[in-house]
C-alpha cells in the first residue's frame, strides 16, 4: 500500500520530488506547501493540492512522510516540527548547516520514533556505482587515488544558493554529493585528514567552487572538485590503482580501464618530449597492458523512496543512515575550517 507524501518547498527540487511522487509505485502525493503563494498557485494549476499553511499540512492525519526541499538554513526547524507532529521526514541535502543542528533533528526523530533521512540521490549515479564496482571487483588492485569532479561554466546560481544566510555555496550544494559518494564507495575507511580550498570567482559571499582532499586511514587520497567557471571540463572520475587506471570522461559515458599485466618492459624506446627525450614517460607496449571499456552499472533513483517506505515498515534498514549523514556534515565543517586556516585538518571521521 502506498504511503502518503507531502512536499514542503515547491521550487526546483520540490517540483522534482512532487513529479516523481506522482509516478511512484510506493508513495502517493497528497499535497505541497510553499511559503510563496505563487508557488502554491502553480501547484494547483498542475492539479496538485496545495496547503494554505505549514500548520495545515502538519495537522493533516493523511500525511505520513514529509519531504523538505527548502533553502538549507530552514531545514532544521521544519524537520523538527514535522517529526514532533509524528511525520517521517526526508530532507534535501545538505541536511542542515551544522552538526549541532543535525543532532537536534536526529534527537527529534529518535524521540518520536520516526524515520529521518537525507535525499542523497546521487548514490544512484551510474558513475559512482562504476567506481564502487571497480573497488569491489578489485579491477585495479589497491586504489590509492580517486579524483571526482563536477564542472560547469555558468557561475553560482543567482537564487538563495548565492546567499550565506541561506546556507549557499557550492560546497554545500554539490560538494555534499561528492563527499557522500566518497563515503558511500569506501564506507569502512575512516577519513584522517582534510585539506580544502574554496573559490570566490563570481561570488564573494559564498564559495562558487571548492577543492577538497580527503585522506583515508588506508592511504587512499580522494579528491573532490566543484567548479562553476570551467569552460573546458576535466573527466568526471579518474581512478588510480597499483595495477591500473580507470577514467569516466562525462555523465553517462562508459568507463575506460587500463590494467597492467606485465610491469617491466625490456628495451623501452625513448620518445621525444618537448625539447628532450624520456624513457620514464614513454607509452607502454601493448603487450604489457590490457585496455577495455565497460558500460556503467544501471540504477533506479526511485529505490531511494522504496527504501524509505520499507524502513518505515521495518522491512529493511534505511540506506542513508544517521551516522553517514553525520560523517558528511563533519567533513564539510572540516573543509570550511581548512579553507579558513589554510591548513589541513587532522580528524577521524
Question: What is the structure about, briefly put?
Answer:
The chain has 349 residues and is an alpha/beta fold. Helix content is 31%, strand content 26%.
Describe what you observe in this structure:
The protein has 349 residues and is α/β, with parallel strands linked by helices. The strands form three sheets. A nine-stranded mixed β-sheet has the order 15-12-11-10-6-9-8-7-16. The protein is built from nine helices and 16 strands. It folds into two domains: 3-119, 3-Layer(aba) Sandwich (Rossmann fold), CATH 3.40.50.720; 125-300 and 330-346, Dihydrodipicolinate Reductase, domain 2, CATH 3.30.360.10. Helix 4 (75-84) packs parallel to helix 5, helix 6 runs parallel beside helix 7 (170-185) and helix 7 (170-185) packs across helix 9 (322-341). A hairpin with a 2-residue loop joins strand 10 and strand 11. The protein has helices at 12-22, 37-45, 54-59, 75-84, 99-111, 126-137, 170-185, 303-312, 322-341, and strands at 3-8, 27-33, 65-68, 88-92, 116-119, 143-151, 191-199, 209-216, 221-227, 237-241, 244-248, 255-260, 271-273, 276-278, 289-294, 345-346. The model has no long low-confidence stretch (mean pLDDT 96).
Amino acid at each position: 500500500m502506498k504511503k502518503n507524501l507531502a512536499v514542503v518547498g515547491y521550487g526546483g527540487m520540490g517540483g522534482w520530488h512532487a513529479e516523481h511522487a506522482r509516478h511512484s509505485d510506493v508513495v502517493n502525493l497528497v499535497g505541497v506547501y510553499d511559503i510563496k503563494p505563487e508557488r502554491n498557485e502553480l501547484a494547483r494549476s498542475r492539479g496538485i493540492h496545495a496547503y494554505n499553511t505549514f500548520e495545515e499540512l502538519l495537522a493533516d492525519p493523511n500525511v505520513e512522510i514529509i519531504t523538505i526541499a527548502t533553502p538549507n538554513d530552514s531545514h532544521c526547524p521544519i524537520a523538527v516540527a514535522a517529526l514532533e507532529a509524528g511525520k517521517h521526514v526526508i530532507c534535501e541535502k545538505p541536511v542542515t548547516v551544522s552538526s549541532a543542528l543535525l543532532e537536534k533533528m536526529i534527537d527529534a526523530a529518535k524521540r518520536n520514533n520516526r524515520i529521518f533521512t537525507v535525499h542523497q540521490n546521487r548514490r544512484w549515479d551510474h558513475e559512482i556505482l562504476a567506481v564502487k564496482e571497480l573497488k569491489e571487483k578489485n579491477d585495479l588492485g589497491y586504489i590509492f587515488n580517486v579524483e571526482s569532479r563536477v564542472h560547469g561554466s555558468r557561475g553560482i546560481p543567482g537564487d538563495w544558493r548565492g546567499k550565506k544566510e541561506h546556507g549557499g555555496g557550492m560546497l554545500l550544494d554539490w560538494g555534499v554529493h561528492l563527499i557522500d559518494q566518497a563515503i558511500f564507495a569506501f564506507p569502512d575507511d575512516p577519513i584522517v585528514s582534510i585539506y580544502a580550498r574554496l573559490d570566490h570567482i563570481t561570488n564573494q559571499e559564498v564559495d562558487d567552487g571548492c577543492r577538497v582532499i580527503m585522506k583515508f586511514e588506508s592511504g587512499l587520497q580522494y579528491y573532490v572538485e566543484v567548479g562553476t567557471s570551467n569552460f573546458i571540463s576535466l573527466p568526471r572520475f579518474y581512478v588510480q590503482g597499483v595495477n591500473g587506471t580507470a577514467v569516466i570522461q562525462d555523465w553517462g559515458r562508459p568507463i575506460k580501464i587500463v590494467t597492467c599485466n606485465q610491469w617491466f618492459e625490456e628495451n623501452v624506446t625513448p620518445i621525444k618530449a618537448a625539447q628532450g627525450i624520456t624513457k620514464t614517460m614513454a607509452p607502454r607496449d601493448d603487450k604489457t597492458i590490457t585496455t577495455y571499456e565497460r558500460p556503467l552499472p544501471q540504477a533506479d533513483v526511485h529505490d531511494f523512496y522504496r527504501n524509505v517506505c520499507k524502513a518505515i515498515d521495518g522491512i529493511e534498514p534505511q540506506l542513508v543512515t544517521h551516522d553517514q549523514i553525520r560523517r558528511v556534515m563533519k567533513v564539510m565543517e572540516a573543509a570550511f575550517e581548512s579553507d579558513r586556516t589554510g591548513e589541513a585538518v587532522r580528524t577521524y571521521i
